[in-house]
Amino acid sequence: MTRKKILWLCSWYPGKTEPFNGDFIQRHARAAALYNDIYVIHAIETDSVKIKETTGEISQSAGLTEKLIYIKRKNSWWSRMMGHYRWLSMFRQAIRDYIRENGKPDLVHVNVPMKAGLFALWMKSKYGTRFIVTEHWGIYNDVERLNYTGRSETFKHYTKKIFDKAVKFISVSRYLGEGVNRMVIPKEFEIVPNVTDTDLFFYKERSATPFRFIHVSNMVALKNAEGILEAFQSLQGKYKDVELIMVGDTDPGIRDHAKRIGLQPGSVFFKGEVPYEQVARQMQGSDCFILFSNIENSPCVIGEALCCGLPVIASRVGGVPELLDERNSLLIEKGDTAALTATMEKVISGRTNYNHKKIAEDARGKFSYMVIGKKLDEIYSGVIATS
């Protein structure tokens, strides 16, 4: 197998200032690097105290090079006005440096078209390089408050141009891809789902009691974590040996809500924002995962739960149904708290018969680094072969 040189231009990417910003893109990059030489460029303007001055950092691992540029935002009005131009200049210079050191890439891969896709357009004009684009951003619907239709005309003009000039469009879900086709431009797309780190998220057999539900999210309003608490509260009088684990909260409001509705101490456990290793351990110690969101795209957390062998109760929104089937889940309508309570009761009482080990095996075959990396390699090979 010949390893190809693929230059990744990323609008989002995790780093020192925002460790979870586009971490799913980084996992795609790591998957792609199993089969190809991936070079990531991401630049961010920041006023974080973690960054003392404008700097660039390069990290390398097997097959993957990540160049992250931190542009220190200053307080003067002139500096703030010039910030965008400084960002453009430094991103473009990073591309020039890459070409000087490595030659032209075999292909450019844009992750989230705006704004990194602007440089793919520039490279196409200047160097004749072709590019593909993966969209992760769930703004192509009528539910998201700051959706695509509410964006500026400049944003919409360049987003459309980037999609139009891309030789291939990858979406992480059919729901998102169809949204782009409906709101931006008709374009065929291929689905490559989000990656799950199966070295962390895998099945471990556990004791039967207590029965544990688990929810993992940042618990913002769209996740409807309050609805999960209310559904669980309705079960407390019937079932004594049942627990609810809530992972990822950063705002005290959700804990205050639990107190207001009278949830009993010792039955609900808030874990806050924790590293992925701890998320995996919490899932492996649970029996069923709940996601009661009002809107979703293609949530990574479902793949993680499935790889741990957990059946999923989820609201039927966005790309969620694409990830699930009757062998591993029960779907309900969004906002229907009574239906959530009844479904949780159904799972507790054993009226469902899930093979947890089989759920994990099937999920590994869909979401692992090796599987997703191979999908990306096949796409790269197909595009390059037609050049």
List the helices and strands and how they pair.
Elements: E1 5-10, H1 23-32, E2 37-46, E3 55-61, E4 64-72, H2 77-102, E5 107-111, H3 113-127, E6 131-135, H4 153-165, E7 168-171, H5 174-183, E8 190-191, E9 211-216, H6 225-235, E10 242-247, H7 253-260, E11 268-272, H8 276-284, E12 288-291, H9 300-307, E13 312-315, H10 320-323, E14 329-332, H11 337-348, H12 356-367, H13 369-385
Parallel strand pairs: 1-2, 1-5, 2-4, 5-6, 6-7, 7-8, 9-10, 9-12, 10-11, 12-13, 13-14
Antiparallel strand pairs: 3-4
Helix pairs in contact: 1-13, 3-4, 6-11, 9-12, 12-13
What's the short story on this structure?
With 387 residues, the chain is of the alpha/beta class. Helices cover 40% and strands 20% of the residues.
Structure characterization notes:
The protein is α/β, with parallel strands linked by helices. The chain has 13 helices and 14 strands. The protein has helices at residues 23-32, 77-102, 113-127, 153-165, 174-183, 225-235, 253-260, 276-284, 300-307, 320-323, 337-348, 356-367, 369-385; strands spanning 5-10, 37-46, 55-61, 64-72, 107-111, 131-135, 168-171, 190-191, 211-216, 242-247, 268-272, 288-291, 312-315, 329-332. It has an eight-stranded mixed beta sheet, sandwiched between helices. Strands 11-10-9-12-13-14 form a six-stranded parallel beta sheet, with helices on both faces. Helix 5 (174-183) links the parallel strand 7 and strand 8 (190-191). The longest helix has 26 residues, at 77-102. The radius of gyration is 22 Å and the shape is globular.
